[in-house]
């Protein structure tokens, strides 16, 4: 089955010589794609520093990778992807999503230096421990809530129905957990464990909004008497 690929070409400055470099990169990468029988669905070119991660073409490529649009990325060499930390961050994302990087420099799959391989391994280990730490925090928040009498299966409507992602903040649950003396951080972690993608700041903001609304209702009620 023919694999889908994107060609990425980059130069750092905007001058005539660099424009010819973009054209040369594209021509060589088209030949590489033909050599490996790849279906090129997109060709991206940009003029930007390799140290900058905030590049429009790169961000679009990352979107395509996350949505499983491509399986292979074609570049002239690893420096075209980026330099320094930007390059390592991108290579980590490509490996994480199973995307192969082919280069004309290697005439095939990208070969990294021992130093780069070591850094990528360290990044992967750190990310795995961060994931475990995040899960531990969720469990901690849940235990604290349950210990104080919180019963998620009774309190949350629709909880457990297909595992769908719930975007709105359940203000009743935020208030209930706050009354149990949980911190905003613990409330956020607890609700994330139940499918609500909420940050500590969002929980705090919704709770403060609730308090303002309660004060306004009390004030309006007093004025009407």
What does this structure look like?
It is a single chain. The chain folds into two domains: 4-112, 3-Layer(aba) Sandwich (Rossmann fold), CATH 3.40.50.1390; 133-224, no CATH class. The chain is elongated. Mean pLDDT is 84; it is low at 156-167. The longest helix is centred in the middle third of the chain and has 34 residues, at 114-147. It has a five-stranded mixed β-sheet, sandwiched between helices. It is of the alpha/beta class. It has nine helices and five strands. 23% of the residues are buried. A hairpin with a 4-residue loop joins β4 (100-103) and β5. The N and C termini lie far apart (76 Å). The protein is 58% helix and 12% strand. InterPro entries: Resolv_N (IPR006119), Resolvase-like_N_sf (IPR036162), SSR_resolvase (IPR050639). GO terms for molecular function: DNA binding; DNA strand exchange activity. It comes from Halalkalibacter wakoensis JCM 9140.
Helix segment tally:
9
Output the CATH topology of the largest domain. Rossmann fold
Q: Terminal Cα separation, in Å?
A: 76 Å
Instruction: Give me the strand/helix succession.
Output: EHEHEHHEEHHHHH
CATH architecture field of the largest domain: 3-Layer(aba) Sandwich
- CATH superfamily name of the largest domain? Resolvase, N-terminal catalytic domain
- The structural domain count equals 2
Strands, count: 5
Radius of gyration: 25 Å
Strand order of the largest sheet: 2-1-3-4-5
Q: Mean pLDDT score, rounded? A: 84
Biggest sheet architecture: 5 strands, mixed
The shape, in one word, is elongated
CATH class of the largest domain: Alpha Beta
Question: What share of the residues lie within helices?
Answer: 55-70%
Broad structural category: alpha/beta
Which consecutive residue ranges, at least 5 long each, have pLDDT under 50? 156-167
Sheet-strand content, in percent, reads: 5-15%
Domain Resolvase/invertase-type recombinase catalytic: 4-149
GO molecular function: DNA binding; DNA strand exchange activity
Protein name: Site-specific recombinase
Organism: Halalkalibacter wakoensis JCM 9140
């Amino acid at each position: 089955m023919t694999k889908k690929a994107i060609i990425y070409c980059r130069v750092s400055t905007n001058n005539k010589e660099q424009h010819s470099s973009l054209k040369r990169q594209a021509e060589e990468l088209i030949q590489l794609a033909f050599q490996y029988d790849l279906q090129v669905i997109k060709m991206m070119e940009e003029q930007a520093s390799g140290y900058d991660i905030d590049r429009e073409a790169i961000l679009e490529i990352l979107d395509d990778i996350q949505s499983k649009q491509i399986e292979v990325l074609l570049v002239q060499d690893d420096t075209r992807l980026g330099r320094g930390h930007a390059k390592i961050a991108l290579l980590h994302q490509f490996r994480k999503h199973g995307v192969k990087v082919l280069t004309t420099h290697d005439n095939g799959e990208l070969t990294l230096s021992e130093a780069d391989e070591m850094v990528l391994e360290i990044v992967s280990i750190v990310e795995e421990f961060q994931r475990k730490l995040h899960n531990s925090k969720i469990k901690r928040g849940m235990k604290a809530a349950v210990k104080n009498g919180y019963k998620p299966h009774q309190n949350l409507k629709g909880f457990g129905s297909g595992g769908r992602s719930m975007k709105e903040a359940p203000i009743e649950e935020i208030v209930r957990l706050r009354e149990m003396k949980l911190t905003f951080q613990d409330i956020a972690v607890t609700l994330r464990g139940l499918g609500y993608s909420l940050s500590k700041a969002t929980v705090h903001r919704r709770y403060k909004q609730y308090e303002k609304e309660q004060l306004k209702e009390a004030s309006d009620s007093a004025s009407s008497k």
